[in-house]
């Protein structure tokens, strides 16, 4: 059993890990909306105004900070006025991207905003640049956020909502390099500036505008977007005409045609998936370096608003619905991503896993026959990491961690990150070793530790997953494998596991002030 040291200076807090890094994504795709969130008011499934109650309760338990909707690729086919008014009078449309099914628009703007209010989550709306118009987008945000007797506010009231909503986040298109228009970045930049101009702040609603960004390692796309900003050297104002750019990256072990199986994989494929997940660190670092050249003050946010695993669909399911199981491997893919986001908290202001219910790397699976709700291993990583929300990042200096060469890349077999808030701290650790346990010695410096608690997420098999018949096959449990050695904590890290250690810190020893306030006046929510 190898011994690894992790040095953490508890008195040197860094930038804030925004809670919005733990954001979610709900697209009109497969059973994410219909059968996932939305069952309708007449359903036998317990619901609140048609929204499934147990899904809301489960997501509130992990503190969902924001929800991105209506897509994804669907967003650039979506015309919001089709989704308002009496449901039985709403026009239908074809969802050409996902199964070529007919969409009846019974879940629209009012239903989505009701969902966000039930969740206690901020709304992140992805606007239609691909097939929409500037006026359409301008009218939508007026409809949502204006309080007076403007034409769109009057229309909203006629549809049953008197008070405006708060909409902090607005996406300017989605995957403009692909399903959002097949545009070159030079074309998209002009459109993004134009649409941003008409995505107005109404009353006290301040919108954080996010321009559709790069696919994977397309650094040219990011650089062209950064060149398009108004001057960024004025310290007293946010970036304009938009405030952030996005990045999309999905983990898979095969090609886009054959992505790999969710529950049937070899040990080599286990390592390959985790190696490819770890590429997110390089992507974020290199896109950030491009952004630093034009924005050294880090006014512009990087929003990773689509990430996660993408496997072949489960046998017997509709290929266009992207329904996949979720194993312990997926949970560790998530934990590796969060470590990367934490380490780049100065630039990564938001991230959205794809997707929340019944699609891709979901938090929740709902069984269409029994109606059962299943929490996935990935869900548990989100829950175990709640202590990182809006906490100050701490550097973790790993020494002696084992490595493995995978597909031409070096994969560290232990990953870790940490944060602190007030008189507590949270250390997260992942053991990516398929077979070997490791001991991690936590060398915690700068403040005194008065208590500690640990939980672990693991299972006997690498492909273990939860089902309606066995919903607790992969679930967190109390971990008692910690020994105190003077000022050190020795933590036993089981093979293929995710572990968190919550620390109580002596409040009498106060660290230096956090440097996390840089974006507080620019970033809503």
UniProtKB/TrEMBL annotation:
InterPro entries: Alpha-L-AF_C (IPR010720), ASD1_cat (IPR055235), GH (IPR017853), Glyco_hydro_b (IPR013780)
GO function terms (MF aspect): alpha-L-arabinofuranosidase activity
Domain Alpha-L-arabinofuranosidase C-terminal: 305-497
EC number(s) recorded for this UniProt protein: 3.2.1.55
Keywords annotated in UniProt: Carbohydrate metabolism, Glycosidase, Hydrolase
Class of this enzyme: hydrolase
Known partners and oligomeric status: Homohexamer; trimer of dimers.
Protein name, as recorded: non-reducing end alpha-L-arabinofuranosidase
Source organism of this protein record: Promicromonospora thailandica
């Amino acid at each position: 059993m190898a011994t690894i040291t992790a040095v953490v200076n508890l008195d040197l807090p860094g930038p804030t890990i925004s809670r919005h890094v733990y954001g979610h994504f709900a697209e009109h795709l497969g059973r994410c909306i219909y059968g996932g969130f939305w069952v309708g008011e007449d359903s036998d499934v317990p619901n609140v105004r048609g929204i499934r109650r147990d899904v809301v309760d489960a997501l509130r338990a992990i503190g969902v900070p924001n929800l991105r909707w209506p897509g994804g690729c669907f967003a650039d086919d979506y015309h919001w006025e089709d989704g308002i008014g009496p449901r039985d009078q709403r026009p239908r449309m074809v969802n050409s991207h996902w199964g070529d099914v007919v969409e009846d628009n019974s879940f629209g703007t009012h239903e989505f905003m009701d969902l966000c209010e039930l969740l206690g989550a901020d709304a992140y709306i992805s606007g239609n640049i691909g097939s929409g118009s500037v006026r359409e987008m301008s009218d939508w945000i007026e409809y949502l956020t204006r309080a007076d007797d403007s034409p769109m506010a009057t229309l909203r009231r006629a549809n049953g909502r008197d008070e405006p909503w708060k909409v902090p986040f607005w996406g300017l298109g989605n995957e403009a390099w692909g399903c959002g228009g097949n545009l070159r970045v030079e074309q998209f930049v002009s459109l993004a500036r134009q649409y941003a101009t008409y995505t107005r702040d109404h009353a006290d609603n301040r919108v954080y505008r996010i321009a559709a960004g790069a696919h994977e390692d397309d650094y040219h796309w990011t650089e062209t977007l950064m060149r398009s900003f108004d001057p960024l050297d004025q310290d007293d104002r946010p970036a304009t005409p938009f405030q952030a750019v996005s990045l999309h990256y999905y983990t898979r072990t095969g090609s886009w045609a054959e992505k790999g199986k969710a529950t049937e994989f070899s040990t080599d494929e286990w390592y390959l998936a985790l190696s490819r997940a770890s590429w997110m660190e390089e992507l974020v670092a290199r896109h950030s370096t491009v952004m630093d050249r034009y924005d050294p003050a880090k006014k512009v946010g990087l929003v990773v608003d689509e990430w996660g695993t993408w496997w072949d669909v489960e046998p017997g399911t509709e290929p266009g619905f992207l329904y996949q199981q979720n194993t312990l491997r997926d949970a560790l893919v998530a934990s590796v991503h969060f470590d990367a986001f934490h380490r780049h908290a100065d630039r990564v202001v938001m991230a959205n896993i794809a997707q929340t219910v019944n699609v891709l790397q979901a938090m929740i699976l709902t069984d269409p026959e029994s109606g059962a709700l299943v929490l996935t291993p990935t869900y548990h990583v989100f829950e175990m990491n709640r202590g990182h929300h809006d906490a100050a990042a701490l550097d973790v200096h790993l020494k002696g961690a084992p490595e493995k060469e995978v597909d031409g890349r070096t994969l560290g077999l232990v990953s870790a990150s940490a944060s602190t808030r007030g008189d507590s701290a949270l250390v997260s650790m992942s053991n990516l070793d398929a077979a070997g346990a490791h001991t991690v010695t936590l060398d915690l410096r700068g403040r005194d530790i008065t208590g500690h608690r640990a939980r672990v997420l693991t299972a006997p098999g690498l492909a273990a997953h939860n089902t309606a018949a066995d919903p607790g096959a992969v679930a967190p449990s109390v971990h008692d494998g910690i020994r105190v050695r003077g000022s050190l904590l020795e933590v036993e890290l089981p093979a293929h596991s995710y572990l968190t250690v919550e620390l109580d810190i002596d409040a009498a020893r106060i660290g230096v002030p956090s440097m996390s306030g840089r974006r507080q006046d620019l970033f809503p929510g």
